[in-house]
Amino acid sequence: LWVDLSTVSPSFSQEMAQKTLARKARFLDAGVAGSKVPVEQGSPRFFVGGEDAVFEACLPLFKAMGCEAVHIGGYGMGITLKMVLNLIIGETMLAFGEALVPGEAMGLSRQYLLEMILGSHVAAPFSNTKRAKIASDQYEADFPLKLMQKDLQIATTTAYEKEVAIPAAGTAKEIYALAARHGLAEQDYSAIYSFLSQGQPADKWK
Q1: In whole angstroms, what separates CA 53 from the centre of its chain?
Q2: Reported pTM
């Protein structure tokens, strides 16, 4: 039995499923929803693709590792949902950070902007989990920026394979790539704000 928890492309996951089945073994792809803190607390969720009977047999394993496992569909479907969710999070974090920049340039304090935006209906709920990092300019990684860049690459590659257009994701991927090259690869992906506002690593800020 191979239960793959890696965030890889759906097409690669489907290929691995077929190679595994050819060897008379069982396969599940299981995208993990939840970064450092949920994992440490034992509360990540799993989005699982594969045969229903194999999923049912593995439920005790998923329950031991996290709080919930959901059978999404056939091979590659679990990681597909994970890809879609990370695409939303990556683009949303970029838009959130980008919105702060002109507000600060016009004289609104960062603290005021965070309070007003995160207290409004326009902010995605997960954005509140990044408030302290942005407010303090401290970006200890819950989910490293380089992994968000990688996940956006997976999304754009999948879109190419399926002949669909996701132009905003392509732009977002390149902005995260530039931020990584500016020394932010190992910091939390919310450090995309620091790249947009400063364009240099946090330890060089003045």
Answers
A1: 29
A2: 0.90
Q: 10 Å Cβ neighbour count for 187?
A: 23
Q: What are 12-51's pLDDT values in tens digits? A: 999 999 999 999 999 999 999 987 777 888 889 999 999 9
Six-digit token string for 8: 């890889």
What is the distance between the alpha carbons of residues 60 and 46, in angstroms, rounded to a whole number?
A: 12
Would you state the structure tokens that stand for residue 46, as one six-digit string?
A: 């799993």
What is each CA distance from 146 to 78, 117, 121, 200, in whole angstroms? 22, 26, 29, 16
Query: In Å, what is the CA distance from 56 to each residue of 27, 30, 71, 112, 184?
Result: 13, 13, 9, 49, 41
| Predicted confidence (pLDDT) per residue in 145-198, tens digit | 999 999 999 999 999 999 999 999 999 999 999 999 999 999 999 999 999 998
Q: Are strands 27-33 and 45-50 parallel, antiparallel or unpaired?
A: antiparallel
Read off φ and ψ for residue 70, nearest 5 degrees.
-120, 125
User: What six digits make up the tokens of 100?
Assistant: 């702060």
Cα 20 to Cα 28: distance, rounded to the nearest angstrom: 10
Cα angle at 104 between 102 and 110, to 5 degrees?
130
DSSP assignment, residue 29? E
